[in-house]
């Protein structure tokens, strides 16, 4: 279990730019992950700008809730409070496929029980999903770059770069170098577009 502040810049890339960046830095790790997003029919969490997912890796899994902080540490980049509960792979597969529900114990369940009525948890069901091939790179200033190719239920795929760091100044320095090195430009439609938003957009 963990709870932390996540500060990051997320930028949607063209396939060409994705390939240029991914081949320009030293790879640290590469893996697949499957994301299943939960809400109820009333979209209670979505209306409150909260995302809830179960994420499966090849040998373990986790349940994650993301909420906006009441007071942000900075205003330049995306910032959320991330609450995680660890799951075994078997637990996650059961919750997603058989039970069709989230784990009803742990930090996330406690948060939901404290902030919503007692029946909310039982109404949360898988709504959509995404499948991501993730590559971690040793980026500028030894700041980790996350490069994602993600597929959605309707067959659509997109490409994204995430720069996560507790120091916003470091994120900005990395962005400045990437802009110069790759002629990186982007508009509002390309930044901070969450995977859950895109998964709903491309829900089959």
UniProtKB/TrEMBL annotation:
Gene3D superfamilies: Hypothetical Protein Pfu-838710-001. It comes from the Bacteria. SMART domains: CYTH. It holds the Pfam family CYTH. Residues 4-204 form the CYTH domain. This is Adenylate cyclase.
């Amino acid at each position: 279990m963990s709870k932390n502040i996540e500060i990051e810049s997320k930028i949607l890339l063209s396939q060409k730019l994705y390939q240029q960046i991914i081949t320009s830095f030293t790879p640290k790790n590469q893996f697949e992950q499957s994301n299943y997003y939960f809400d109820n029919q009333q979209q209670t969490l979505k209306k409150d700008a909260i995302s809830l997912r179960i994420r499966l890796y090849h040998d373990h899994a986790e349940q994650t809730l993301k909420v906006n902080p009441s007071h942000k540490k900075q205003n330049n980049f995306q910032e959320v409070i991330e609450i995680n509960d660890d799951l075994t792979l078997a637990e996650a597969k059961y919750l997603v496929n058989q039970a069709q529900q989230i784990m009803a114990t742990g930090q996330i369940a406690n948060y939901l029980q404290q902030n919503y009525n007692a029946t909310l948890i039982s109404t949360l069901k898988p709504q959509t999903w995404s499948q991501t091939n993730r590559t971690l790179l040793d980026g500028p200033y030894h700041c980790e770059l996350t490069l994602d190719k993600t597929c959605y239920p309707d067959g659509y795929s997109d490409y994204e770069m995430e720069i996560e760091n507790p120091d916003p100044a470091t994120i900005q320095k990395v962005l400045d170098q990437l802009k110069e090195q790759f002629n990186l430009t982007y508009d509002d439609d390309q930044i901070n577009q969450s995977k859950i938003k895109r998964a709903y957009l491309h829900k089959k």
